[in-house]
Structure prediction request, 73 residues.
Amino acid sequence: MHPAGNQHLQRVLHMQEKMGQGSAVIMKPQEMSVKELKSAIREMGLENRAKGMTVKKELVDLLLGSANSSVIL
Prediction:
């Protein structure tokens, strides 16, 4: 796993523990809804790079280019 992806994983798991959520679900970006993609992009601090993107493929490509091929929700 790419180091940045591992750091993101640790942050999300910590956040879920604090929020009292159950186990994490690993999803491929291609399987995520646009709403889920935008949320993951926000959590990864990529909002500025995503501005103006409206097509799902653009959002998927941004996530795949910035982390591992799986995103934690």
